[in-house]
Design brief:
alpha/beta; TIM Barrel; 3-stranded parallel β-sheet; 9 helices; 5-stranded parallel β-sheet
Length: 269
């Protein structure tokens, strides 16, 4: 946490952490729980399709191991190939949130992915589902390609954020769309969360230095040799990148410039 005043507002909720985590691909439940705790994240996304309809201690020991007074559930519609499937998953996601004691949680990470090979989001299906869910009172966080015009259309529909990918999900390729991401960030009046493709802390920091409002990642931590250490590294990287953005970087120059002052310090006052 950088300071008490630098908070992230999504919908009607305010968060101190700008790092959001996914919950899949961990080797063990212990790895997952420890990484989430170490990261100090406050938003955790969970794929609704991979969970049973009713939660019990036996079938969801992972979820039951977490403190939902400190975490906010972000149900996601992963696996949905059409807008209709995504809409159905969104309503199931709200039911899941209610079972965890978050009856007022209508957040949904909207994913419509009809391409099984490259797993790129479907812009038409995403727009269709987003429009319906916003009208139904959901706080919609759509996962999209780094498409500046699509981002504006989703903002106009009333989405709470846009979540452009840095590179294909799970690829660890980093930020392959920096120019488009910069345009989205510049034009957006809602939070921009870089989602997918980040593999290293330096890439997370770079996302924040661009002016993104947050980062969502999963595989980079879950598949690290030591997930808990990577979780801490990502936490610090997001905080450093945010602080660097707020501080304002020095102007780039064409030539070298001496770092030592030419005169005495007293002459600079």
């Amino acid at each position: 946490m950088i300071n008490n005043s630098d908070t992230l507002k999504i919908g009607n909720k305010t968060f101190n952490s700008r790092l959001m985590l996914g919950s899949g691909k961990y080797r063990t439940i212990e790895n997952a729980v420890n990484s989430i705790i170490t990261s100090d994240c406050e938003i955790l996304t969970v794929a609704v399709r991979r969970l049973p309809t009713k939660l019990t201690n036996d079938n969801t020991s992972f979820l039951k191991s977490l403190d939902w007074n400190k975490l906010w559930l972000l149900p996601n519609t992963a696996g949905s190939q059409t807008a209709e499937e995504a809409i159905r998953m969104a309503f199931l996601g709200h039911e899941l949130a209610c079972q965890l004691g978050q009856e007022d949680n209508f957040f949904v990470k909207l994913e419509v992915i009809s391409d099984p090979k490259y797993l790129l989001p479907d812009p038409i299906g995403t727009l269709k589902a987003a429009e319906f869910l916003v009208k139904k009172g959901f706080t919609v966080l759509p996962y999209i390609n780094a498409d500046p015009m699509l981002a504006l259309h989703l903002e106009d529909l009333g989405c709470a954020t846009v979540m452009p990918l840095g590179s294909p999900i799970g690829s660890g390729q980093g930020l392959n769309n920096i120019s488009n991401l910069q345009i989205i960030i510049e034009n957006s009046s809602i939070p921009v969360i870089i989602d997918a493709g980040i593999g290293t802390p330096s890439e997370a920091a770079k996302s924040m230095e661009l002016g993104a409002d947050g980062v969502l990642l999963n595989t980079a931590i879950a598949q690290a040799t030591t997930p808990e250490k990577m979780a801490l590294a990502m936490k610090l990287a997001v905080e450093a990148g945010r602080l660097g953005y707020l501080a304002g970087r020095m102007e780039k120059k064409s030539y070298a410039s001496p770092s030592s002052p030419l005169g005495h310090i007293s002459q600079l006052n």
